[in-house]
Structure formats: C-alpha cells, structure tokens
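Forum: Protein Structure Q&A
Topic: Joint prediction for protein chains with partners

I've read a bunch of threads here and the consensus seems to be that you should model interacting components together rather than docking separate models afterwards. I'd like to see that in practice. Below is the full input, 466 residues plus whatever partners are listed. Could one of the regulars post the assembled result?
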Amino acid sequence: MTSTDRDNLMLPARGIGYRVFTVLVAVWMTVVVCVGILGHISNLPILEHTARNLYFHVPMWFTLMLGWFVTAYHSLRLLVTRRRIHDVRAEQAALVATVFGVLGLTTGIVWARFTWYMGTNIWWNGDPRQVMVTVQLLICGAYFVLRGALDDERQRARLAAVYALFATVTMPFLMYVLPRRMESLHPGAEGNPAFSQMDIAPEMRWVFYAAAVGFLMLFWWIYTLRVRVRAAEIRVSELADWP
Amino acid sequence: MAWLHGAIAVFQKDARLELRTRFALNALALFVAAAVLLVRFAVGNAAVTPPMAAALLWIVILFAAVVGLGRAFIVEEERGTVLLLQLALPATSIYVGKLAFNIAITLALNVAAASIFWLLVGPEVHALGLLTTTLVLGAVGLAGATTLLSAIIARTVSSGPLLAVLSFPVLIPLLFSVVRLTQLAFEPGATWSAAATDLTALVGYGGLMITASVMLFEYVWRD
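Posted by a regular:
Agreed with the consensus. Here's the joint model:
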C-alpha cells in the first residue's frame, strides 16, 4: 500500500441501503419516543412515572459503551494498517459516545435524586455505575486533550490510538471488579442480574428492547454522518493548503 | 536474552544519571514532605480515622507520582538522546529498563511518603506486612500505568499537567484497591484473608497494565 492510499479520505458514495436505514431509524426512534412517553407502564410506588426513564437512560449507557468499543476497534485498526480514515472514525465515535455518556449520566443523576434519594439532598452518590461512567467520560476527555496537545497528525493519530487502547484495558476493572465490591441500589449491582423476570414488567420489556436497538441505530447514523463531514472537512482544508 | 541485557543497561544508565544529581529523588522527597505537612496543617487537631488516613496518604502519593514519573522520557527528548536509544536497543528493552527504574523510584517514594505520613499524621499501623505489600504492589501498578503514558506525553508540545489528566482515569481501579488495603492495615484485627480480594485485584491490575504497555510501547516509541 502506498502512502497516498493510506492518507486517502475519499469515502464511497452511499447506496440505497443507507437511505432506507436512515428512514428506518427516524421512524423507529419517533415510535420509541411516543410509546415511551405515552405507553402503559406498571405504575409502582416511588418509581411511578419516572420508570419511563428506563427507555432512555439505559440505552444511552449502551450507546456510550458501543461508541467506545468502536473507538477502540478503529484505534487498533489504525495501529495495524496506519490508514488515516481509522483515526477519523475513532475520533468521531469517541465524540458521539461522549455526548451520549453525558446524557446518560445526567438522566441517571436526576432519576436517582427523585427516587432513591427522595427527600434528601443527595445529587452525587458513590454508586459504582455512576463512578464507572464518570471515569469513562474522564477517559474520553483525556483522549481529546491528548489529541489537542499533538501537532503532527500522524503522531496524533498513533498516540491517541495507543491511549484509547490503553484506557480500554482498564475497563474490565471498572465494569466487573469495582461494581461487585461496592454497595449499590442500582439494578445489576453486586452481581444480581439487572433485567430478570422480577425487575421489569412484560409490557415494558419490549419497549425497552426497541429503545435499546433504536438508540444504537441512532448512534450509528450520527456517527457515520460525522465521519463523512470530518473527512470532507480535512480534505477541503488540505486542498486549501495547495499552492 | 539480549533484550534483558539491554533493559539492565537502560536501568543502570538511568540509575547512574540519577545518583549523580539526585534531582528526581530530592524533588520527590521534598514534595512528599511538604505535601504531608500541608495535610497535617489542614487537618489540624481533628482525629484522623483510618479511612481518612488511607485516602490522604494515597492522594499525596498519587500527586507526587504524576509529578515525578513524567520525567522518564522527557529527559531523553531534552538531552537529544532519543535517536541513539532507538538505534541501540529494541523497544521492549527500553520499556522494561525505564519501567524498572520507575518502579524503583515509586517504591522509594511510597516508603518515604508512608514513613513521613506515619510520623506527622500518626495513624496506628496494625499490620505492617500488609502495608508493605500494598506499598510494593501499589508501586508496581503506579509505575506500570504511568511509564507508557510518560512516553506518550514526551511527544507532546506542552506536557505540563498532561500526565495527571491522562493517568488519573486509568489509575482509579488501583486507587480503589490500595486505599481499602491501607485502611485495613490501619485498623486493628486485619487479616490476610480479608485482604485477599484486593491484593489479587492489585496484582491483576499491575500485570494487565505492564502487558498492555509492552504491546503498545512499540507504537509510541517508533515513528
């Protein structure tokens, strides 16, 4: 492979499949939001209608995780192939993941404040999931700070990829070791399953699944769009550098 | 075993240079002493419970480590010896040599910090063996996580606070385990079996960080 192939940021044109996919995501998410807000739920004490947050808060976590795994995957591919497009993909996936992570953290904090900690003044609690997502967001932040501190773009791509992979290595500790060692009110903590028969009403289960799939598809749509925009931006800026 | 000889050579070079000036060691010792004194004044006459003592001790160690350990590869850039090292030795040798030197420095730092802390803040040490093990494993984990990151920041334009930004998120699992173990050592009735899970987590963390670093160092080191 020549170096021009490696630096090539031209992406092939989108086919009909992608258009169908975007229409599907738009319709799917609209239905999920409508059913999520208007649909029937088991109106339990304490939780009451905040249970609807399940459809939005939990899928945002999934999206953060998927986004970071996409970043890690493309970081690995970058180190192996040295193709510049993987750097663009890794950066944009981390960006979209960070946005969804902040949303997931915020919805989680507000939800906990008005259910578990009703009548107290606790906004920030030591819940392991909260700690975990905060650490993940710190890693995302550090990733962008590192990118900003590097001038040469090949070096930036390579070192950012190394950092992304290095940070990914600590995730088993954050996901499996710490949550099982800390006390928590969160479903799925201390080794108990999160979505067993007891935890979720049957009529909510299918909406939840649909919301999870919908959010992951929404991530993919935003992410692929952002990759195209960023690649085009880089190409334009390099075109302007020519004499 | 050529790479091992290379690693030993790198370690000896760094140790010799350090012993000539003692810059890093003196700076770290003073940093730790000043930081613990600050803790002492800030705490005042309030009673320091074991959980508080453990947390304060490790906060001091963590900040001292990111100040002191960031230098490992920056000095090579400053002296202009990077190219020579790249020519002379394979990447793994250089990483292992630097890691060994960083572990030695961190170990000295941990022991110094714990001693000064014990002297000035005065937590009761009930399990000295457990505390020593924690300090040693903590040093391996700290050095294992920061050596690769210090190689990354040596390549950046302004490396000032960058090591702290990059390493703190990665160090949180380590901090969690060492603080619990230290707390255990400060409380009466500590047993090894109560500490087993956290000790295993610590060993796992150090091993994971060093393995990942060995695999990734090549990409940081070579252009």
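The mean pLDDT of chain B is 90.
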